[in-house]
Amino acid sequence: MQVEIVEDYIDISKKAAEIVKTQIKDNPSSVIGFATGDTPKGMYRELIKLYNNGEVDFADIKAFNLDEYYGLPKENPQSYHYYMMKNLFDFVNIKKENINIPNGMAESIEKECEEYEKKIQEVGGIDLQVLGIGRNGHIGFNEPDLKFEAETHFVELDEDTIKANSRFFHSIEEVPIKAISMGIKTIMQARKIILLAFGKEKGEVIYKAIKGEITPEIPASILQLHPNVTVIVDKETASFL
Ligand code: F6R
């Protein structure tokens, strides 16, 4: 694991956006795995800037998001679908047919998970996966568990995750308690991974993920076994390392 410590959130966002830009320059039809949440918002803003300056072209990339809440239609402002449109896709030239986000309204959830996984495999897997990390160590919605969940699957969200994500909703009761998430194996098969974290809040879990025991109780700790992971953190997070 390579750990890059930068000054602040803006620098994390710039560095991450540069990595995505380079990936797309090197391979314009890259398969990119995107994340939602607060952490990558700055990176998306930087990518939009780079796009407007003609420095990056999304025309041929294929995007696969990590996860989606179960039971939220894509028009719902809290859905990850909506998030991706409003934070990135509406502002760049990605083709609609190349946007892939699990369908939280699918009639058969099992089928949706299977098909999502199949689609990722059919395009040859993910070239670059962007990850944030939950305070409980989750990546995607792979919650702490007794075993690592391999492929795209249906998840019951952790209490801690529901609490953390309630900041995006009017009340905690509105937070969906289920989701669809790429699995650990799917993520680990990505050829390159960047894991972003900022602030004191993420210090302890980043420490556990990169220096602690590899255990499904801290799902991100499995990344220690991946050959090409760059962790980008600010000074506050890094003060825990
Ligand atoms: C989002 C995702 C989650 C978040 C994590 C951190 O697609 O998969 O694992 O990356 O919950 O969220 P923030 O960035 O809001 O702290």
Domains (count): 1
> Could you say what the CATH architecture is?
3-Layer(aba) Sandwich
Stretches where pLDDT is under 50 for at least 5 consecutive residues are none
Q: What is the helix fraction of residues, given as a range?
A: 25-40%
Query: What is the average of the pLDDT values?
Result: 96
Quick one: biggest sheet? 7 strands, parallel
Q: Assign the CATH topology.
A: Rossmann fold
Class computed from helices, strands and strand pairing: alpha/beta
Identify the CATH class.
Alpha Beta
Shape: globular
Q: What is the percentage of strand-forming residues?
A: 15-25%
Topology as H/E string?
EHEHEEHEHEEHEHEHEH
Q: Strand tally, please?
A: 10
Structure in words:
The strands form two sheets. This protein has a seven-stranded parallel beta sheet. It is of the alpha/beta class and 241 residues long. Strand 9, helix 7 and strand 10 (229-234) form a beta-alpha-beta unit. It has one domain (2-238): 3-Layer(aba) Sandwich (Rossmann fold). Helix 1 (9-26) crosses helix 2. The protein has helices at 9-26, 41-52, 80-87, 109-122, 159-165, 184-188, 203-211, 235-238; strands spanning 2-6, 31-34, 62-65, 67-69, 99-100, 128-131, 153-156, 178-181, 192-197, 229-234. Fructose -6-phosphate is lined by residues 35-39, 66-67, 132-134, 138-141.
Secondary-structure blueprint:
Elements: E1 2-6, H1 9-26, E2 31-34, H2 41-52, E3 62-65, E4 67-69, H3 80-87, E5 99-100, H4 109-122, E6 128-131, E7 153-156, H5 159-165, E8 178-181, H6 184-188, E9 192-197, H7 203-211, E10 229-234, H8 235-238
Helix pairs in contact: 1-2
The structure holds fructose -6-phosphate.
